[in-house]
Amino acid sequence: MLPQKHAYIETFGCQMNERDSEIMAQLLAADHYAATNDMQAADLIVINTCSIRDKAEQKAYSLLGRLRIMKRANPALIIAVTGCVAQQNGAGLLKRMPFVDLIIGPQNIYRLPELLDQQTVRLSSSTRSRRCQIATTLSPAFRIPPFLPTITKPSFKRFITIMQGCNNFCTYCVVPYTRGREISRSAADILKEINHLVDNGIKEVTLIGQNVNSYGRDDSSSTGHSFPELLRAVNAIKGLERIRFTTSHPKDLSLDLIGCFAELKKLCTHFHLPVQSGSNRILKRMNRKYSITSYLDKVTMLRKINPEITLTTDIIVGFPGETDADFEETMELIDTVRFDGGFSFKYSDRPSAVSAGFPDKVPEEIKDFRLNRLQTRQNEITQEQNQQVVGSVLPVMIEGLSKTVAGQWHGRTSGNIIVNFISSNHLLPGQIVNIEIAEAGRNSLRGEHKLD
Ligand code: 5AD
Ligand code: SF4
Asked: How do residues 384-415 score in pLDDT, each as one tens digit?
């Protein structure tokens, strides 16, 4: 039997990266690398990176700076960089961090064991030829392979990758360059994976991709399903309780998908619909391909079909050329829509993105000021929106027991809001219980367990 080795994985960024890290952990376990939370005990360290904003990229580089010292002390340690920084910077990353052993882009993670075995042979050979391997091919012919997850830790919810890449080329965004063109995964593989998860106790799945609304529309795809058709098929899986999805592009939000929120009982009443800006002029410069009027129409349709839907969004402040007047339109928009929650970011130049070359960059202090104003107002709106459910009884899926407050459980509403409540009952993660909401905070609700 081979001696047990240990792998430490650090994940930055979005749910796609989280899922990719789970996939790598599973591949590594089959390759005799047990997972460890202790970096010092690792024979292999994988840094799964994000490059959506400069800050995210710098986090990866700063961790790599620390690993340089570890590698010096232990030359047998293997260091792999995966994810979007690996894809984007490839050879440049190696130049800056010459001690890295493997550089693997998002389409190549399934090759990790094979690349690792080759590297292990190199490092243990008498010549110790240390050559980094770079696997960053990005091909439209790529297919996400069939992959059945192992369930090692008790869990009740999982992410399922249904597509990856993006064809939209928003001018600020690096994703089309790091994850390539849209590639939808076979519906048969997705359904098989979800059935397998449900057979192993999973109650909630989140279907993930950069632009899930356009699932099945890419030329290369032979899924035979549109996104709403896929949702219907997932909804029919016995034993599954809840379905979520993210992320969606407003221009691809179809009437058929809106209808799913009335039709599909397992589909959670939460929609994350990034608007990015409240100014049509800025949306044009961002190449978003919708207007504020059409965005608002879709919001109205969603709320009409299911008034319980909670809406969240992403907003960028300080996009090149954004004037005070443009920003005021964003402020107006959040008051018009009254989002239940929002993620907002200062615009960050990405080297491969088109807007990096735009003139009229907004000074940092103006971006700070705008972000602060936007977040302050959105926080107030979120608090007010949460206040509206006080007094109602909501089904909450249990997530777990508090580590700090005795007898306090936490779970999530269908609208994706965290609820804390005290109960002496023995509850199970994944179980749905009715909670009467007594109090609303900005980040969570507090309630009482209604015995059914
Ligand atoms: N600068 C700032 N924010 C960005 N996002 C994407 N690219 C950039 C960038 N260059 C934000 C968008 C997107 C979210 C995931 O990250 O709002 O929806
Ligand atoms: Fe980036 Fe736009 Fe694609 Fe989203 S839709 S991943 S913001 S290019």
From this structure: 999 999 999 999 999 999 999 989 999 999 99
Closest CA to 230 of 202, 256, 203: 256
Using N-to-C axis directions, what is the helix angle for 292-305 and 255-263, rounded to 10°?
20
Measure CA of the first residue to CA of the last residue in the chain; give whole Å. 53
pLDDT tens digits for range 131-169? 899 999 999 889 988 889 988 777 899 999 999 999 999
How far is the centre of ligand 1, averaged over its atoms, from the C-alpha of 131 (Å)? 34
CA of 168 to the centre of ligand 2 (A): 6
Query: Closest ligand to 170 CA?
Result: 2
* Ligand 2 atom at minimal distance to the Cα of residue 179: 6
Are β-strands 44-49 and 78-82 bridged in parallel, bridged antiparallel, or unpaired? parallel
Element at 142 (helix H, strand E): none
Buried b (16+ CB within 10 A) or exposed e, 59-78: bbbebbeebeeebeeeeebb
Angstrom distances, CA of residue 284 to CA of 161, 291, 320: 30, 8, 12
Which atom from ligand 1 is nearest to the alpha carbon of 173? 7
Helices (H), 312-393: 324-337, 364-387
* Mutational pocket test of ligand 2: of 249, 315, 343, the residue with most ligand atoms within 8 Å of the beta carbon: 249
- Report the amino acid identity of residue 153: K
Q: Does residue 192 sit in helix, strand or coil?
A: helix
